[in-house]
From TrEMBL:
Naturally occurring in which organism (per UniProt): Roseateles oligotrophus
Occurrences of domain GGDEF (ranges): 263-395
Keyword Membrane: yes
Family annotation (PROSITE patterns): GGDEF
Transmembrane residue ranges: 12-31, 43-63, 75-95, 102-120, 126-145, 157-177, 197-219
SUPFAM superfamilies per the UniProt record, alphabetical: Nucleotide cyclase
Catalytic activity: 2 GTP = 3',3'-c-di-GMP + 2 diphosphate
Protein name as it appears in the record: diguanylate cyclase
Length: 395
C-alpha cells in the first residue's frame, strides 16, 4: 500500500539522540524536584520513568557501536515499556492510590520477554514486531493511569492536573497509533515505516517535555496544598482551624456553593463544660485525648459539605449547610446528647464530659461571618450561664 502523501526523510539516529538528551534533561529536572520534595507524590517514580528512557537509548547506542548481538538491540523498546509502567505507578502514587505492583511488573515483564523473543529469531518479519508490540503494551499501561487522573481532575480540577491529563491522553493515543502505523503492512514499505516512526519520534519528544512540565507543576501545586493544609488544619484533632474555616467558607462562596451568609447556613459554637477539671483530674494528655475524641465525633455528625472546626483550646464549631433553623436545633441537641453518652477513652480510663452549644443563623444576606460567629458565641455563653450541658439559640 502506498501512502498518498510525501513524507519528509528524517534521520532516525539523530532523532533518537535528541529524544535521549531530552529524556535525560527531564530526568535530571524531575530528580531535582524529587530531592527537594523528599520523594513525595511518587516523584522518584516519575524521575525513573524519564531516566529509563534516557538510559535505554544510551545503552542501545553503545551496543550498536560495539556491534552487540541483535536481541540486545530491543533494549530501546524495552526501556519504553518499563518507562510506561513507571508512569502508571507514579500516577497512582501521586494520587495517593494503592500501587498494584505485581500485575504491572508481570505485564511489563511479559511484554519485554516477548520483545526479546521476537528479536532473537533473527527473522526480519518477526523482529519488526518488537516495536509495535512494546508500543501497544505502553499504550495499555498508560491507559490504565487515565481513569484515576480523570476522576481526580473531576473532583479537584486545576491547571497542572489538566495538563497531565491532556499529555497522558495524547500519549496513550500516540502510543496506540504509532504501534499500528509503524508496521510495514500499514506504512506500505519498510522505508516508509522507518520514516513514519521518525515523525512519531518528533511528537514523542514534545509529549515527553509536556509530561515533565506537568509533573513539575503538579508537584509545585501539591507542595502549596500541603503548606496550606498545615496552616488550615489543627494538628491535634485534624479538624479545620479558625483560619481554615474562614478560607473554606470564602472558597465555597466564590464557587457559589454558599451565598454570602446564606440563610440556610447554621453555625454552632461548642465548648466543653469544666474542661479545666478534666486536665486537673486526669492530666493534660487525657485532656488531649478527649479533644481528639470530640474531633472524631464531630466528623461523624457532619456531611461532606459541612465543616467541623476546632476554634482553639476546648472550643469547637460546626457549620451546617442547607438546614432550617428547626433542624439545626435538633442537630445541635443530638450532638450534645452524643457527647453526654460518649465515654472518651484514653490510657487513663474512660472520661465522661458534656458540652454547651450556642447556635446562630444569619439574619440576612449581608451578615458578615464574624458577626454570625459572635452571635453564636453569645448564645454559647448564655448556655453556660443557664447551667451548661444545653443548647441555646441566638435571635
Ligand atoms: N489538654 C488540653 N487542654 C487544653 C487545651 N487547650 C486549652 N485547654 C484547657 O482548657 C481549659 C479551659 O478552661 P476554662 O476556659 O476555664 O473553661 P472550662 O474549665 O471548660 O469551664 P467552662 O467553659 O466555664 O465550662 C484550660 O484549663 C486550658 O488549659 C489543649 O489543647 N489540651
Amino acid at each position: 500500500m502506498q501512502t498518498p502523501f510525501h513524507l519528509p526523510t528524517l534521520d532516525i539516529p539523530t532523532l533518537l539522540i535528541v529524544y535521549q538528551v531530552v529524556a535525560m534533561l527531564m530526568a535530571v529536572v524531575t530528580l531535582g524536584g524529587a530531592w527537594s520534595a523528599r520523594g513525595r507524590h511518587g516523584l522518584w517514580l516519575w524521575a525513573g520513568a524519564f531516566g529509563v528512557i534516557a538510559l535505554a537509548q544510551l545503552l542501545r547506542a553503545l551496543l550498536v557501536s560495539f556491534g552487540a548481538p541483535t536481541p540486545w538491540l530491543s533494549i530501546g523498546h524495552i526501556g519504553g515499556v518499563i518507562s510506561s509502567a513507571l508512569v502508571l505507578l507514579a500516577v497512582r502514587s501521586f494520587l495517593g492510590l494503592r500501587l498494584h505492583r505485581l500485575p504491572v511488573i508481570l505485564f511489563t515483564g511479559l511484554a519485554c520477554l516477548a520483545s526479546v523473543l521476537v528479536v532473537s529469531t533473527g527473522q526480519p518479519q518477526w523482529s519488526l514486531l518488537s516495536l509495535p508490540l512494546t508500543l501497544a503494551a505502553s499504550a495499555l499501561l498508560r491507559g490504565f493511569a487515565l481513569p484515576p487522573i480523570i476522576r481526580s481532575w473531576n473532583s479537584r480540577g486545576g491547571f497542572a492536573l489538566g495538563l497531565m491529563l491532556v499529555d497522558l491522553s495524547l500519549s496513550v493515543a500516540a502510543y496506540a497509533l504509532r504501534a499500528i502505523t509503524v508496521t510495514p503492512a500499514f506504512a506500505g514499505s519498510l522505508e516508509q515505516a522507518v520514516t513514519v516512526n521518525g515523525l512519531w519520534l518528533l511528537l514523542f519528544i514534545v509529549l515527553l517535555t509536556g509530561q515533565a512540565f506537568a509533573v513539575l507543576l503538579l508537584v509545585n501545586s501539591e507542595l502549596q496544598r500541603s503548606l496550606w493544609s498545615m496552616v488550615e488544619i489543627d494538628p491535634l484533632t485534624s479538624l479545620l482551624n479558625r483560619r481554615g474555616m474562614k478560607n473554606r467558607i470564602g472558597r465555597l462562596r466564590q464557587r457559589g456553593l454558599v451565598a454570602k451568609a446564606a440563610p440556610s447556613v447554621v453555625v454552632a459554637m461548642i465548648d466543653f463544660d469544666h474542661f479545666k477539671q478534666i486536665n486537673d483530674r486526669h492530666g493534660h494528655a487525657a485532656g488531649d485525648a478527649v479533644l481528639r475524641g470530640l474531633g472524631r465525633l464531630l466528623l461523624n455528625h457532619v456531611r461532606p459539605n459541612d465543616l467541623a472546626v476546632r476554634m482553639g483550646g476546648e472550643e469547637f464549631a460546626v457549620v451546617w449547610q442547607d438546614v432550617s433553623a428547626e433542624d439545626a436545633v435538633k442537630l445541635a441537641e443530638r450532638l450534645r446528647q452524643s457527647v453526654e453518652d460518649e465515654l472518651f477513652g484514653s490510657e487513663f480510663g474512660a472520661i465522661q464530659c458534656t458540652v454547651s452549644i450556642g447556635i446562630a443563623m444569619p439574619r440576612g444576606q449581608e451578615e458578615a461571618l464574624d458577626d454570625l460567629l459572635g452571635r453564636a458565641d453569645a448564645a454559647l455563653y448564655k448556655a453556660k450561664r443557664e447551667g451548661r450541658n444545653r443548647v441555646e439559640r441566638a435571635y
